[in-house]
Amino acid sequence: MPAAVDTKAHAPATVAMPSPRAMALSLALLLGLQALATDLYLPALPALARDLSAAMPAVQATLSAFVLAFGLAQLVWGPVADRFGRRPVLRAGLALFALASLGAALAHNAATVVAWRAVQGVGVAASVVCARAMLRDVYEPHQGAHVMSHALTGLGVLAISAPAIGGALATAAGWRATMALLAAIGATLLAFVLWRVPETLHTRNPLATHAPTLLLQTRRTLAHPGFRAWTLLVCSTYGGLMVFLAGASFVLIEFVGLSVWQCGIAIGSNSLAYVVGTFICRRLLAHHGLVGAVQRGAGFTALAGVGMLWAATLPTPSLWTVLVPQWIYALGHGVHQPCGQTGAVGPFPRAAGVAAALTGFALALVAVAVTLWLGQHLNANRPQLYFAALATMAGATSLVAWTLVRHHGAALE
Q1: Angle, nearest 10°, between helix axes 141-173 and 319-345?
Q2: Which fold has domain 20-412?
Q3: Who has the most CB within 10 Å: 180, 199, 248, 336?
């Protein structure tokens, strides 16, 4: 089994270990920024398209640019966080996100929105990669998965309200107001980090950004079968979530006939199911461990895939054919995400930033591929492709859980 790269490091930094409750709150807010940056303005996408006279590919590019920049930036932020600590990276990233959100709110064409959304992605990448690395700094994998499930419950609560707030805000004040709110959220979260989030990195690695060392650690991380199994699991389940996030507002508004505000409520209901999934995750972890929890969570995912395949055969989607399979999928997602994210960084206590960055980059590649594909193929004549794409990701997730994770994920337990 490949091991993490051992390098000489600086003397341990002064570290104040947070309590599990404080850590869960910090993780929920830091990871939740990514969800807010997407979910808050999803109901406003049709309004953005009308206001800027933008075609579907240009509108979807506001999502894909964000996700691509988010993934690429993690490859930079991860090693930097291993070298300089989590707090400096968090400060820089959150300040960048707040400024980029303000820039997007003032944009006058789709290309400018796309550019600012890319900068937003760079800022959010710092928040997410540091959150995942902080978890490994403080906890061993099994306990970390439990804390992560609490954090993702909090994230789900944020995600429940975000689409409804975004839909109401877009209806009352236009899509620009959603970006202005994101700017305020970024500034508030920066203040929270300065006030309440301690440095969790025990020992800074002065060679973390040294090219030969970084390449060696990257190669060993990618060669680790457990890392590959857990990362492929989170990529598959996240790919299905991105199909929903990128396509649901158009399906629900254009095909089902919901208003923007109703669409926000419908999208938010998926987050409620996800929160329930994180509660299920904690119960499964207590009785079956990381791998056992994922094996059982895949049952929800497979059932959702069957429902989505059935929906793809219908000539016209209804509200329930859109939502019910997605709710079941979200239950499984609530199990796979905390287990998969913890499992991917578990083997690398001395290089958690790099491992978190590589996982995040892989997630971003999947998300970009999904949004670009939907932008090209989702139209008024082919809504069934939306359901087929969801079913494909559900099948891939279940297959990975029942094969690769089963055989290679147990080393952490």
Answers
A1: 140
A2: Growth Hormone; Chain: A; (1.20.1250)
A3: 336
